[in-house]
Structure formats: C-alpha cells, structure tokens
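Study this:
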Amino acid sequence: MVKKGLLERLAEGPVVGDGSYVFTLEKRGYVMAGQWTPEVVIEHPEAVKQLHREFLRAGADILQAYTFFASDDKLNLPGHAAGKITTCKELNERAIDIVREVAGDADVLISGGVTMTPSYKQGKGKEAVQAEYRKHVEVFMEKDVDFLLAEFINHVEEAEWAIEALKTTGKPVVCTLCIGPTGDMVDVPAGECAVRMARAGADVIGLNCQFDPNTGLKTMKLMKEALEKEGLSPFLMMQPLGYFCPEVENEHPGYAMLPECPFALEPRLLTRFDANRYARAAYELGVRYIGGCCGFEPHHIRAISEELSPERDGKLGEASSKHIPWGEALKTSTFLQNRMKANPEHWKSVKPGSGRPDHPALQPKLMGQ
C-alpha cells in the first residue's frame, strides 16, 4: 500500500496527531522527571510500544518516534544518567524501530523529531546547534521516516536553525514553538515567529506544549493573521498542553510557573469533552494538524478523532468501537443516575468540580513572583 504523505493529507483535510509521551511515561514509571530523557526506548521498549499502540487505536494518523530530548548535548548534561547508557544515534534508531513495529501496515505516518538543545542555551552558536540536529537527521534518513519535526523550541532563532538543518533532507519539515501570545523567550512576537519559520522553509508551523488549548488558540490566531498579512500559507499545527492553566498565559515559561507543576496537575486535566471542543475550535481557525502534548492521553486523542470524523470521511480509530461520543453509551447502564446523563446536552453543559473545597480555582501566586 502506497501511503499518502503528510502534505497531501493536510491538503485534503485534518490530520490527527498523537499525544503525551514524556509525562505519561513518567507517571507509568519509565521516565525520570527533571531530566525527561527517553532512555526508556533502550530500557523498557515494551512501555513505549504500548503507548504507541494506544494512540494508534485512539485514531492518530501520526505516530512520533519517541526521540524527545535525545540530543547528545542533552543526554550528557551534568547529573543526567542517560549519557552513560546510550547515545543520540542509538536512541533514535531504537525509537524508530519501535514505532515502525507498532505501525505495521496501518495507514499512519511516522515522524522523527528534534527539540531545543542545551547548546543553544549555552551560546555555542549555530554550527554547534546544527551539528546536534544533524546527528538526528542522519538516523532519520537512514530509517526513512515520513517527515521531520522540530518541536518544543522557545527561541525562534533556534527554530530557524533547526528548520535549515532538517530541510537538507528533502522531506516535509514541521516546526512548533512552545510559546504563548507574548512571543518567544526574547519577546519576538508570535506573529513574527510564524513568519520567520515559514520563510525558513517549514511546510507546517505551529505550537506545542507549555500552554493550554485556549491560550494556544489565541496564539495561533496571532500567527495566522501575521502569515496572511505576508502572503504566506504553510499548514498550521497545534499540540497544546492537556492541562488548563490560564494564569500563565502571558508568562514565557508557561505551566512551569504553576506551583503544582509537574507532579500535581491532575485537577487541571482536560476532559474528553474539552478535547472535542478544542479540536473543533482549532479546525474552525484553520489548523489542520491537530493533536496534543503533555497531558493528552489516548482518550483525548480519541475525542479529537471522533470530533473530526465528519471531516475525515468518517474515519475512526479502533478504540471508538468501545465508545459512543457525548455520553450515549450510558443509555444501557443499569444505574438510573447514569442513564439520566446519556445525552449530549448534559455533557455539553456540565462544569466538572475538583472535589477540593479548600483549593483555589486559580493560583494566586506563580513561581518566581
């Protein structure tokens, strides 16, 4: 079977991305918080395979090889154990082999990804940063992934360097920044960031992580307006945070400023219905690559897939065979109270409580303030 490529799919309609790897695998006991490096692909490959399977069953059209924070300069930072175990090359090879085994003959695309580098933050310059990216690229080309992704970058200058390095492959290049409406870490406006990424040659640009869907939609609107003003038309992408955090909308570090980040964020988690609403709003804004980042579990991706099914010729993941959207499955419950909720009107109007009467709805003070 000859698969349609990413750009062809995006031209036809929405594409559903996958979700959280780093946070989910940390919760499951396979990733060390703080370091967030992906040596799990060496130590416990079955854990990564299982999560890939869950996103595939949920309806994802894309599976990202788990290569997040896999650059050699990151693996070998002081206090990091991963560099003693493996290398960027080995991690990338194993991660792609794992995701390809899971994908099998499914109509799903595989991406190889790079992230922000310590070399950039340390001021080592363009050549040093791109040298780290090229180590990834060599494996991605050898393994023939479907497209390349630069994500979780908070300086548009580094994003431009990443795009330049990835464009040498001739494969589609996707680039997402982890920024909010105030722009990147040195206050380059969000709209200017978008224009610069497009002019650098990215085929798809957008946002991932750090900020929730509501903030992401505001930022994406700024980016889209700036692109249209300049006559640029890359495809747009969103993979936001799966936790509501409106307090940090105008803070460059995003949800890291919350006192409860990263170990007590669960009360802020999106419901499946929030994922429905996010997917619809993103689509209506013109975003065509729609997925999630930290906090987006497989059931959230299933909700995105189901919400956008009419725009995808009725396509659904296998997991939807065990789910009826908007509560309709409760019609067969033996409990009257559940049957009373078996309708979209209930779930579209309900406002979930946290069950924590002595806790604030929003944090009155953020970290570092």
Summary: The chain is about 40% helix and 10% strand. The first strand starts at residue 15 and ends at 16. The mean pLDDT is 97.
